[in-house]
Design a protein that fits this description.
The chain is α+β, with helices and mostly antiparallel strands. The chain has 7 helices and 19 strands. It starts with a helix and ends with a helix.
């Protein structure tokens, strides 16, 4: 099974398209609409669960498998409007405050208006404030400064901004000639783009699937319950296609597909991990088997909700998770190749 340059270009194109659509957990209608349109135009019949997850049956018969990626991201929400016209935020998803300092963002009002701003330290000027480096970064010391002429809370309210409005973090996508892709939200839009490419590959190459395969794009993974529902009732096996971790004492990097043997929720299914590992060896794709100590996945949410399924987790290696993330075309290609082989072997 070979991947063409067009397959790889399509994968990058899909990832970039997804990253450019704001979608913090709870604010995913636009990206869901995009996916529904994408799969409908490809000739599939996608549908949405009550909670908003997008489900696509891409064909095959028997022993149904779900490949799941999440399309929700980290973000924030307006917690309070300060007297000086700046905004106190509350996190959506788990990340340290220093990971968003000086990042540009957008505030999405419920009336549909969008305003730009930046996450700044409340004491940002080195020439004015002492020991800026020693200031603890949290939602009290970092605030959103709007790119609007506002001087007080009323000015902000008059714009239509209110408590509960979503704040998205700009992705800042960069693709290097060396094959590196940098962006926020590669967790998990890199894998979601891979699943889109798989659907295109299956359709264009007219390959025969070895079982029934669903694609599931969940909308609440970053807050812990994305995979708890929306899973087709006949599912027997589910693999979360999410980012692979890169760090000390791990063997994965951005150029590998990472297969997780255990994370904070415990070990993954023995046979699935073994089969994926053996297949990666057979295909001669760069891979790693690792343990992620501070990680939870959609498939674990499904298990906690009572679904009786076998479970696995894999994905391209992603550096600097929950920050300004980085992966590589080789890691994306390895993940894509392994998954395609897994469903057509």
């Amino acid at each position: 099974m070979l991947l063409s340059d067009e397959d790889r270009k399509e994968c990058i194109k899909n990832i970039i398209s997804l990253c450019n659509i704001p979608s913090p957990s709870g604010f995913t209608k636009d990206i869901c609409r995009y996916l529904m349109s994408f799969f409908t135009e490809k000739g599939y019949q996608p549908y949405q669960s009550n909670k908003g997850s997008v489900v696509v049956d891409i064909g095959g018969e028997g022993n149904p498998l779900v490949l799941a990626a999440h399309i929700d991201t980290l973000g924030a929400m307006v917690r309070a409007i300060k007297s000086n016209g700046n905004i106190r935020y509350t996190n959506i998803g788990g990340y340290p405050a220093n990971n968003i300092e000086n990042e540009t963002c957008k505030v999405h009002t419920r009336s549909g208006k969008v305003y730009e701003g930046t996450f700044y330290l409340t004491t940002p000027a080195t020439h004015v404030y002492r020991d800026i480096g020693g200031v603890k970064r949290d939602d009290e010391t970092i605030e959103v400064v709007l790119d609007e002429n506002v001087e007080n809370a009323k000015d902000v309210e008059d714009l239509g901004i209110a408590v509960g409005d979503f704040i998205s973090i700009d992705p800042r996508i960069k693709v290097a000639e060396s094959g590196y892709l940098k962006s926020r939200h590669l967790d998990d839009k890199a894998s979601a783009g891979i699943l889109m490419t798989i659907a295109d590959y299956v359709q264009n190459k007219k390959v025969r699937l070895n079982r029934k395969v669903y694609l599931l794009f969940t909308t609440y993974e970053e807050v812990g319950h994305g995979g708890a529902s929306g899973i087709p009732s006949d599912t027997t096996e589910m693999i979360s296609v999410d980012m692979g971790c890169v760090g000390s004492d791990l063997t994965a990097n951005e150029k590998k597909v990472s297969i997780c043997a255990k994370d904070s929720g415990g070990p993954y299914d023995y046979d699935i991990v073994t089969n994926l590992t053996e297949l990666a060896k057979k295909l001669a794709v760069p891979y790693a088997v690792d343990i992620y100590p501070f990680y939870g996945s959609d498939v674990e949410a499904a298990l906690s909700a009572g679904h009786d399924i076998r479970h696995g987790l894999l994905g391209p290696g992603v550096f600097a998770s929950h920050g300004y993330e980085r992966t590589h075309l080789e890691g994306l290609s390895a993940t894509l190749k392994l998954l395609i082989a897994y469903i057509i072997q």
